[in-house]
Amino acid sequence: MRRTLYGPDHEAFRESAREFVNRFVLPRAEELIDRHEIPRDIWLEAGKAGFLGLEIPERFGGMEAGDYRFNAIVAEEFARANMALSSSMGIHSDITVPYIVHLGNEEQRERWLPRCATGELICAIGMTEPSGGSDLANLKTTAVRDGDDWILNGAKTFITNGYNCDLVVVAARTDPSKGAKGISLLVVERGMEGFENGRKLDKVGQPEADTAELFFKDVRVPGKNLLGEEGMGFISMMKLLPQERLGSAVNNVHHAKHILFETLEYSKERKAFGQAIGTMQYNKFLLAELVTKIEVAEAYVDQAVEAHADGKLTAVDAAKAKWWSAQTQSEVLDACVQIHGGYGYMNEYRVARAWKDARVTKIWAGTNEIMKELIGRDLGL
Ligand SMILES: Cc1cc2nc3c(=O)[nH]c(=O)nc-3n(C[C@H](O)[C@H](O)[C@H](O)COP(=O)(O)OP(=O)(O)OC[C@H]3O[C@@H](n4cnc5c(N)ncnc54)[C@H](O)[C@@H]3O)c2cc1C
Question: In what residue span(s) does the Acyl-CoA dehydrogenase/oxidase C-terminal domain sit (predicted)?
């Protein structure tokens, strides 16, 4: 189906994102997997090309695109390389940086944003804890006032960019008596005493991402690193989570779509019983179903992107886009593995890696169950 979301400016921008992936990322695919991280020089190149500063005001060195469609273009093209590139850079520029842009005061924005735009500062966001991620309001990390400072204690886990991050927005309990209203956001910086980045976690997929635990032991965080108002952390996260979920939905659809079209080509070339496997009725129908599923999911997600660009995306519609696209991605990639036969199970094939990379999308940024909980509540249930 013809898409109507993007205009000529977006498509021109897509060319530069595609060129970046082709030039700096794809030729080093194996190196990224071996290193379990996206090397800093790739971050700096992404910064130079403007992909990290789409939400950052021009006066702080960003592009101030003011149109979420540009973020979506980057997500679509980065997902073509692999999910980890898209999620790592997305956590930085599409998720964490907006916290600083929207909640930061002028001094904080000046202090951090220019280096976020260049890739000199890699950002992460720490919400999830070893004791739980879905029940965010019940988080255990604490920050206690000491003069002008905060003393931070606790741990976060599964943190994207966790090993290499220079700056992490940490959700911490600043008032134990107030439940969700007792949570605040603190910016913790590399080098602060008592702040430790744990080892890179050994994940099922996305080996290119340096997902890690973070530990805080009596970290003295200066008062000037409180982001937004004290006690408003939970509300701020709820406001910014729909963009995270939408970005995730864009990734999900386009990651699966790229692999699906590679699988289609494979099905035209691979022969069994003297004919291309794609021309066998079962596979032909299966591919027809998969392409339809992807296009239908893409149409919903495109509409959500448009709504968000107009400032009208609801949290519930973002939740629908997120769980549905994750489910579709999972079904499509599983079928793509099947169409590849034994090769589909070999790590040297992109389809095998994509299948493993995608498993997490039903879990992170709010599980499918939590998305349905939000939707169910909206139905008055
Ligand atoms: C690779 C990766 C990267 C990540 N990156 C980040 C990051 O950068 N920053 C960050 O803060 N977090 C990150 N996360 C954490 C992620 O957001 C959490 O894993 C997720 O929110 C689920 O939390 P949990 O793992 O504690 O599961 P739990 O909350 O323990 O949930 C376990 C199961 O119970 C179900 N469940 C829980 N509550 C309900 C309910 N009310 N109704 C029905 N079912 C329920 C869940 O759906 C799930 O199936 C990442 C995770 C992974 C795997």
Answer: 231-379
